[in-house]
Design a protein that fits this description.
about 20% strand; about 280 residues; Rossmann fold; 12 helices; disordered N terminus; 13 strands; 2 domains; globular; five-stranded parallel beta sheet; six-stranded mixed beta sheet; alpha/beta
Length: about 280
């Protein structure tokens, strides 16, 4: 395929079928694309589990699963800073991104030259629609349906807390940031039987002060493993703000990755719910 630099994407998409993505954009994508780049870790893992193998030619430096891909696939920068020259060198016929995880300016630059399919995942239903769509686009419908069945069955078996509890889910410190309204994490918390104290307004990942946390007075603090890796040493800081509030370190991938890893999430959530139930 000739280099695309300096040429209009229309030259390469004129005769391709058009589809819609989760941002309601109409894009032209070749039948059964053979050179795919993923810009989202959870979607990279999905592409692997769909059996796409060598058809995935590039991913980000944060796409740590599966390990064999992380060690062998070409990395095209980060989720927030894509290296356009590395993308061009790979000559993709499909790029898969996400509204929240990727920068608008990067996507705008990429879509001038390549087909870019964007997901917008805020709920489990959105995740299921994304998985089904990626299966259709890549010609792996049967495997996608198998994954979706596994996810549905696992969530159908999830037993949430018998008595809902309030929670603050931390993703960052200096400044403190929490998962807020309209986030995928928030949907997972609700399914677990937890009520997010910072789900009151439209802020998706609000910065909060120590005073705001103390005033919210949640029943529980969850400290995520990503994007900020909270450690034991940070408990003192939180104990000073909420001295009587129980805390848990949680696996951020199982709360925020919305691809095939969702098959594993309900078992983890169930274990967490059982550990939070009152004794007796």
């Amino acid at each position: 395929m000739p280099a695309r630099k300096g040429r209009s994407r229309a030259e390469f998409t004129e005769h391709m079928p058009t589809i819609s993505d989760q941002m309601h954009r109409t894009i032209a994508v070749p039948d059964c694309p053979q050179r795919i780049i993923s810009l989202v870790p959870s979607q990279t893992e999905l592409l692997h589990d769909l059996g796409l193998g060598e058809r995935v030619v590039g991913m980000t430096k944060f796409c740590v699963h599966p390990d064999e891909w992380f060690r062998s696939k070409t990395r095209v920068g980060g989720t927030k800073k894509v290296d356009l020259e590395k993308v061009r060198a790979l000559k993709p016929d499909l790029i898969i991104g996400n509204k929240e995880e990727n920068e608008r300016k990067d996507i705008a630059a990429l879509e001038r030259e390549f087909p870019v399919w964007m997901s917008d995942v805020r709920t489990l239903r959105d995740a299921a629609n994304m998985i089904a769509a990626v299966g259709r686009i890549t010609g792996t419908d049967e495997k996608a349906n198998e994954i979706l069945h596994g996810i549905t069955s696992a969530f159908d078996g999830l037993v949430p807390l018998t008595e809902p509890r309030t929670v603050a889910y931390f993703i960052w410190r200096e400044p403190f940031m929490v998962a807020g309204h309209g986030t995928f994490v928030n949907d997972m918390l609700l399914r677990l039987g937890l009520i997010n104290v910072f789900d009151a307004d439209d802020a998706r990942y609000p910065e909060i002060s120590a005073q705001a946390l103390a005033e919210a007075d949640p029943d529980l603090l969850l400290l995520s493993s990503e994007p900020y890796p909270f450690k034991q040493e940070h408990l003192i800081e939180f104990n000073m703000i909420c001295p009587n509030t129980p805390m848990r370190f949680v696996d951020g991938e199982l709360f925020s990755w919305y691809g095939s890893r969702l098959m594993k999430a309900p078992a983890y959530f169930g274990q967490l719910a059982r550990s939070l139930q009152p004794a007796g």
